[in-house]
Amino acid sequence: MSPQTASAPRLQAAYNGKTYENTLPTTVSPLSGYGALLKRWLFEKAEREPLAPLGPFRADAAALAAPVPATALRATWLGHSTLLLEVDGRRILTDPVWAERASPSQLMGPKRFFAPPLPLDKLPRLDAVVLSHDHYDHLDPAAIRFLAKTTVPFFCPLGVGAHLRRWGVPAARITELNWWESAALAPDFTLVATPARHFSGRGLTRNDTLWASWCLLGPTHKVFFGGDSGPFDEAFRQIGEAYGPFDLVTLEIGASDPEWADIHLGPDNALAAHRLLGGGPLLPLHWGTFNLAFHAWRQPVQRLLEAADARVPLLLPAPGQRVDVAAGPLNSRWWEG
């Protein structure tokens, strides 16, 4: 683990023996109450779901299965926060969700806007699965059960391993980390769990598992995977000081709203976090896949394009489109089709 930054003690989530709490006071419930939220859900007219079907999108399974060059840095966005990363000869999958709905039931709840661009059984051999937290839109039991049949190791925040074991992942293949703890994927490749400002829970439970962002530190390239987080300036500053600048930064931009501003960034706060992390190519996540907020489904990326200046190299691939980060900024404009 890198030496502690000199500016301040490293931030840690509080744990009372049963639940975790954010370092900063954090409101999860809507500020105006659930009644006001229901009125907005019923009467606001934003295009929260695409009016016409999206896709189909197709990832190139054969190309993704080829050996990863030792100095490669590539990313394939498969929707929401699911990324297939190719970093310095290794493949890492983040927050795998292939489910039709981000919900405890596949009969109801937010439904995918497009089918996954890569079927689960076409995934190439993976070197790691990295999980940010246990919400339904980030942790899919069916996908985990499928991956449990392979030999891939899983890396997750504290407590999330219980879900994985229940779904068939052997305990020996699970590494659970607290913020700032690290694990070696290989002698020259380290994964570090870092702070985030969010919450956790499935069903009626809340905050009995930890949430995290991640630093993926290869011999040539460094990647930041933000998971879900609200504004957390000191944490992002500490992460940037300890491990940045990054060759690729991935941050959430969707499912944001002033009613729950403590737990999601949205486009403007994502750009602020990006600066604190030290800049670098920015690939936005957590948008354009599920209806999880009141904003129009295109709004996060449209606002990001409005707010970002020329110093922010944006990577905006279509779902399933493989990005070579060294090739520079990319704007596919797939949401305009």
UniProtKB/TrEMBL annotation:
Residues in coiled coil: none
Record-linked Pfam families: Lactamase_B_2
Domain of life assignment: Bacteria
Domain Metallo-beta-lactamase stretches: 90-287
Species lineage: Bacteria, Pseudomonadati, Bacteroidota, Cytophagia, Cytophagales
InterPro entries per the UniProt record, alphabetical: Metallo-B-lactamas, RibonucZ/Hydroxyglut_hydro
Record-given protein name: MBL fold metallo-hydrolase
